[in-house]
Amino acid sequence: MLTNVDETFDDFLRAVTHLAVPAVVATLVGAGESRKPLGRRAIFLAGQEPLGSVTLGGCAEGALRKAADEICVSGQSRLLDVKLGSEEAYEFGMTCAGQVTVQLTPTPPAAALWRTVAQARSNGEVLRLVTPLGAGAVPFALLPSGEVVTDGQPDPALLAQAQALTLDEAVLDRQEGAFFETRLPPSELVIVGAGPIAPPLARMAVVAGLRVTVCDDRPGRLTPQRLPDAHALLLSAPDQDLRLPPLSARSSVVIISHDYAHEVPVLRQVLGADVPYVAMVASRRRGQAVLNFLAETGVEAEQLTRVRTPAGLDLGAETPAGIALSILAEVVAVLHGRTGGPLAQR
After folding, report:
1. Is the dihedral of CA 231, 236, 241, 244 positive or negative?
2. Where in the chain are the domains?
3. Exposed (0-12), middle (13-18) or buried (19+): which is 291, by Cβ within 10 Å?
4. What angle do CA 173, 176, 177 make, to 5 degrees?
């Protein structure tokens, strides 16, 4: 079982779907003035260390653990307002002492709710999650098909509100007595070229919460043994039969094929999609030569400025793993609207 689920929602899902005993799911539903994202989850098991954290540890985590142990016995959900000390609050993104609100909900092993949510996310579906506050009602998910998934009986009023939810953010509605979330599919990283950089890049990207697809025209390199972390492997010959997964505003593409005959057709297709990040691993000179060729063959200059080459941040990396790290760092920065500079200089 995973020992840390505090990085991404998908990490939480992998852990909760492998539970062999009843547990308590803690959901961060309120964070005061902090800009920390709501919906962060952790798992509490009776008499054991929690899996993940919703409050970054400290005294607050101890209060949650005590409440979770009581819920393991009573079986009753509880809404808890947890006070943070000044140091904890600062680490949490608050300027002074404050409090966070956490819903603690018992969950059975192999809960149908979380197993279905995990499958739906792997299918790229948009989900609406509802976590009722306090005791009594059970959490549920609303799938795009209209199917309601739960391990109990959903509250009809909350179901109606979830069906009308259009926001892409998490909302705490104390009046309605529920925490509403719209969960978009995870962002995707498409790696074109299964050379030495691809395995470490795929591995790091998955840890960072991205869904990874690797494309290559060499079956011998495109194997689960070489790329065990990738979610999908796609046999694609860009110069003959170009195949890429569907691209969207949640896709990032990095080309590491080191082959002009591959780079040009891939860039033509990718630049026609609304992807936030497209990069090519190449020397500055060769990368510019590829862009010049595309410009001469009709690709607009505005489109070409989207291509980042050489790919990655300037970390001084020379090994495949180091280069992969620099690329992933740039991807994460772009997805969050940041430049990738030192935090100390912000």
Report:
1. positive
2. 9-183, 188-335
3. buried
4. 75
- Contact predicate 267/280, CB 8 Å: yes
Structure tokens at 42: 């952790």
DSSP β-bridge partners for residue 81: 101
Q: Is-contact 36 89, C-beta < 8 A? A: no
CATH class belonging to 188-335: alpha beta
Q: Give dist(CA 50, CA 11) in Å, integer.
A: 14
Instruction: State the Cα–Cα distance between residues 237 and 259, nearest whole angstrom.
Output: 11
pLDDT, tens digit only, all 346 positions of the chain = 333 333 578 888 989 999 989 999 999 998 876 656 788 899 999 878 888 888 755 667 788 888 999 998 898 999 998 877 545 544 544 444 568 899 999 998 878 999 999 999 888 888 899 999 988 778 999 999 889 999 888 888 888 888 877 666 678 888 888 999 888 888 999 999 999 999 999 999 998 989 999 999 999 999 999 999 999 999 998 777 889 999 999 999 999 988 888 899 999 999 999 999 999 999 999 999 999 999 999 999 999 999 999 999 999 999 999 999 999 999 999 998 999 988 888 7
DSSP element (H, E) containing 150: strand 148-150
Query: What is the Cα–Cα distance from 172 to 129, expressed in whole angstroms?
Result: 12
